[in-house]
Design a protein that fits this description.
The protein is of the alpha/beta class. It contains six helices and seven strands. It has one domain: SPOUT methyltransferase, trefoil knot domain (Alpha/beta knot), CATH 3.40.1280.10. The protein is about 40% helix and about 15% strand. It has a seven-stranded parallel β-sheet. Helix 3 links the parallel strand 2 and strand 3. It is elongated. Its EC number is 2.1.1.34. InterPro entries: Alpha/beta_knot_MTases, SpoU_MeTrfase, TRM3/TARBP1, Trm3/TARBP1_C, tRNA_m1G_MTases_N. Keywords: Acetylation, Methyltransferase, RNA-binding, S-adenosyl-L-methionine, Transferase.
């Protein structure tokens, strides 16, 4: 009798957790944020939080061990429990991006190049993989060659760049804004 009761409690708990996860994954945008080149934990945690808030379908990181880091957990505010986080190591990025293209995603980089398009002037398609670069060096040339387009954030000041988490959040918001309005790309 005790075993049956414990089994009943366990199944009830599993069912409840399954309903919570289904609700969390419901209505996700077709946006994957690739942060496999980002190294600093505060940036990764902030990106996890941004991805959860705007219901990105996934965030990639180079090493999922960061999910256990105390600082990560403090900054992410449990976002890692509600947004799928995938491990894609740097050496596997080109293959991953090519696979995503084969699945119908536009692969975009957030990087200042001679051919970059201002993020606010770009019409985001519905299925996007957004690649973010390293904190200091940006996106390596070999990865830029894999991208469908590079986007940049228009800047008015003297400093040449924003923090990678801030930049990622701005681009995710621009994608979200366009799709909330039923605008470009839908």
């Amino acid at each position: 009798l005790d075993v049956e009761y414990e089994d009943s409690l366990l199944f009830s708990l599993i069912d409840k957790k399954g309903r919570e996860l289904a609700k969390a994954y419901e209505g996700r945008q077709d946006l994957i944020v690739v942060a496999s080149l980002v190294e600093r934990i505060p940036n990764l945690a902030g990106l996890a939080r941004t991805c959860e808030v705007f219901k990105a379908s996934a965030l990639t990181v180079a090493d999922k061990k960061i999910l256990e880091d105390r600082q990560f957990k403090l900054i992410s505010v449990t976002a890692e429990q509600w947004v799928p986080i995938l491990e894609v190591k740097e050496g596997a990025l080109i293959r991953y991006l090519e696979r995503m293209k084969d699945e119908g995603y536009a692969v975009l980089g957030l990087e200042q190049t001679a051919n970059s398009v201002a993020v606010n002037n770009y019409s985001f398609p519905s299925r996007v993989v957004l690649v973010l670069g390293r904190e200091k060096d940006g996106i390596p040339v070999n990865l830029i060659q894999t991208l469908d387009a590079c986007l940049e954030i228009p800047q008015l000041g003297m400093i040449r760049s924003l923090n990678v988490h801030v930049s990622g959040a701005i681009a995710v918001w621009e994608y979200t804004k366009q799709h909330l309005q039923g605008g470009p790309g839908l």
